[in-house]
Amino acid sequence: MPVNTVAYEIIFEFTNDTPDQLRLTGPSGSSVFVESGQDVVLVLTAGLTYQYVLKQVSMQPRKAQLSVRAWDDLKCRATSVFAGISTCGSAWPGSGITVTRRS
Prior knowledge:
By secondary structure, this protein is mostly beta strands. 6% of the residues lie in helices and 49% in strands.
């Protein structure tokens, strides 16, 4: 049986459920500021691994490095990342978010 080898895109939806502004920095070094209560939707290639840095912009900033790899659409909340929860919103094995470092 033939296997589909064409890359396809998935949606990574990130929600800032903290009271502070966050900065999400992607693999290319570009950043987006995410206000409290705001969602950011990123389009990723399924199966590839992306590295991000999430930084809380406040009087007591927190920072987390995360690795994102997904085979289907994925949703994640900032509080989960800062709590160190290793996966967010995917039922597929090998999919999700791994928090590699927090500070």
